[in-house]
Amino acid sequence: MKKLKMFDQTQPTSTDLLDVAVGPHYRLGNGLAEIYQRWVIALAPAMAGSFFIFGSSVLRIYGLCVCFSVLFDFIAEKCAPSRDLTSNWSSVSLALLLAFMLPLNAPWWLIMIGCFLMVVVGKKFFGGVGAYPVQPAVLSIAVLQLSWPARMDYTAALKDMDWSVTMIEPLRLLKSVGAEAADYYSWYDLLFGHQVAGTGNGMVFFILFGGLLLLLMREIQWQAPAGFLLGIVATAGLLHIIDPAAFASPMFYVLSGGTVFMGLFLITDHTTSPVNKTPLFLYGLLAGVLLILVRGYSKHIDGIVYAVLLVNLCAPLLDMIKPKTKGAGNV
Amino acid sequence: MQQLLNFLRKSALPRLSGYDPVIREVEDPDHVVLPLEYPGQVHYFPSVVAGDIVRKGQSVAKSMNGNSVIASISGKVRVLTSVWTAQSVHSPAIIIDKNGGEPMTPEEMFNGPVPAGNLKEAMMRMRAAGVAPPWTLSGREWQEGGEMTELPNIETAIITGIRQETTVLTSQLLLDQQREKVAKGLERVGQLLPSARICLTLPESFRSWAESFFKNPVELYFLSDSYFDRIERDVVAKILGHRIPNRESFRNHGIAVLDLEYLLAIVDALDGKAPLTHKCITISGSDMAEAVTVRFPLGSSLKHILASQGLEISDYTRPLIGGPMKGVAQFTDHTPITYYNGIHLIAGETAPFDAIAPCINCGRCARVCPVNIQVHLINRMVEFGQLDSAKSLNPEACHECGLCAYVCPAQRPIVQLLHFCNHDMIHGERYTWAAGGIS
Questions:
Q1: Which domains, and CATH codes, for chain B?
Q2: In chain A, where are the structural domains located?
Q3: The complex's ipTM?
Q4: Hey, is the C-beta of B326 within 8 angstroms of any chain A C-beta?
Q5: Testing the interface with A: which of B235, B356, B380, B382 to mutate, by most A Cβ within 10 A?
Q6: What is the pLDDT of residue A150?
Q7: Cβ–Cβ < 8 Å for B69, B130
C-alpha cells in the first residue's frame, strides 16, 4: 500500500494497549464497497428484465464487462497504487452501467476496449473513484460510438429478434418520419422493455424499480430525477406545441431510449453530481433540457451520452450555490 | 418526501436498551486528583501546600475572583503536581490522600441560607461553595495581567435537563427524581436574575407531568431522543431565535447555559447545606445490559469509579469520557474524573476510521451537517493542503458534533480533517489576538 503523507499510521506495538481516538466512536458507514454493492443491487431488476426479454445472451455482455473492468482495475492498482482499491466494487457497478448501454451483439474486443477506456482512462487517470470529472461509463460509450459507430448500432444488433413491435429504435424513427413515429409503438411495449435499445437501458419499468430502491436506500436524492423529469416534460412539451410535426409528446421522450436510465442512474452518480438540494434540482433540470436539445437538434439518435457529459461538466459550477453556513464568522 | 424516506434509516449508535434509574453512591477513593485548569476555563491557584491536612468541604484553590476548588475527601495533601486530564491537556493538580478525617459541617462553612434575591451575596456564596456560577465566568478570566472583561447582563438562562450525548442520563434522572428541588432552584435563579428568561430543556417523555408542574415564567423546551435534536449549540439557537457565532462563548452574549446538576448544587450552596464535592456520571457501554448512574467524589480516578460498579478496564478496548459521539478515549484508567457527565465503554475490535478511503462526493456529510458546512468540499481541500480555499468556506462554524463522520460511507476522518483546518486557523491567526487561548 502506498504511504500517504497525511495519514502515516503507526501500528500499535501491543494489543493490550487501550485504543486512543477521538469521536465519533460509532460509524454508520461501512466502507465504500457497501455503497457500490447497493448500486449493483439496484441494477439487478433491470438485469433480470433484460435476461427475460433477450435471453441468455445478455449474460455474455454483463459477464465480460465485469470481468474486464475488475481485471483492468486490478492491473491499474498494481501498476500505480492509489486509494481506489479494487475491493471497493466501484468497477463492478461501473461495468454494469457500461454493459447496459452496449448493444447486444458487441464483440469481446469492443467490450474490452470499452472497459479499458472506462476504468483506466475515465477513472484511474483522473485519480480513481471520487475524482473523475465525468461519468466514466458514459465517457467510454462516447468514445466507442465515435470510433465504431456501426458496432454500436442498437437497431442492427437486434435485427434477428422476432418481436411484434417495430424493430427500429424509436428515436431513430422519430428522426426520419417525425412525430408520427410515436404511433408505431405502444406505451406498454416501451415501458416493459420491448423496444430497440441497448442491453439494459431500455428496460424502463425495471429501471424505475431499481431507481426506487436507490431512493429508498437514500443512495440518491429525489431532486435530480425530479428536475430531470421536469426539464424533459417542459422542453419537449414546449417544442411539441411549437412544432408538433417534428417533436413527439413528452411521454414518448421519457419512455424511449435510455431516458429513465439516465435520470436515475447516470446523472445521479455521486462523484459527478452536485451535493446540495437546489443545485441538484437545477442539475437535473439542465440535464433534461440538454437531453431534448441534443435529441432534437443534433445528428445523435439517443443523446443521453452527450447530455450526461455536458451536464457533468456543469456540476462544479452548480455546486457553488450553497446554503448559508449557520454560526460562521468571528475568526 | 425526505421524512417519508426516513423509515429505512438505520442506526449504528447503541440504543440504551435499559438503564438503572437509581443513582448509586461511590465510596471515597484512597486519593483524589483535583485538576486546577481546564481548557478555556477558569484557572485556579492552590491555597494549600504539600503536607497540609484538609477536610472534606474545605477550599483548596481559588481563582482570581474567588471561585473555589473544594476538597472532595478529607486527607493530607500529597503533592502539587501536573497531571494529564481527560481532555488530553496537562494541568496543574492537587493530590489528596484519604485519612478518614471528619468532613466540615455546613455550619463551619456557611452562615445559614443566603437571603433571597441578594445577587451579590449569592454570588460570593456560590464562589465559596465551588459551584462555578456561569454568569461570572468569561471563559477567559485568567488572562495574564488583564482586566476583567465587562460582560453583558444575563438575558437568558438555559438549564439543560437533557444532555447532548444520548448515553448521558445524569440530568434527566436528577430532574425526574428531584422535581421539587429543581422547581425551587429555578425559582431561586429567577429571583437572582429578575429580568432574564429562564428556560429548561427536558426529554419529550416528561411532557405529561412537566407542563403542569413547572410554573411560569419558566419556559419548557422538550427535546426528542435523537442526537440530532439535542446538539447544544442548536438547541440554544432554537431557544434564542438567533445564532451565536460558534467561536464565541455564550456568556459574551448574555446567555448562561447551566447543567441541571449545577442548579441543584446552587440550591444546596445558597441554602448553606453543602459545597460541591460530588457529581453524577452515567456509565454505559456497547455490551452493557443497562446503563448505571453513579455519584462520585470529584477527582476520583476512572479506575475507582469503574471498580465500584464491578467493571474491569481490561475488558474494554476504549474507555471514553463523554459520550460515543464527542467523547475522548483515554489511554489510562488513572484519569481523574471531574466535571464530565458520561463514561462510555467500548469492547472488542473497533474501526475508528479508514485513513485512506477516498471521498466519493456522495454528500451525506453536507446534508446531515446541522450548521450547513460544505463538509464534502472542505474535507478534500484540507486533505490536499488547500487550507486557504477551505477557510473561505467557513469551517470555523463547526462544533464537532461528529455527525458528518458518523454518516460517512467511506469512514473518512472528517471531524479530524475539519479540526485540523480549524486548529491551523486558530494557531495561524486567532491565537495571536486571544491571549488566553480559545474557549
A1: 13-25+111-350 (3.10.20.600), 31-109 (2.40.50.100), 364-433 (no CATH)
A2: 32-147, 164-318
A3: 0.85
A4: yes
A5: B356
A6: 92
A7: yes
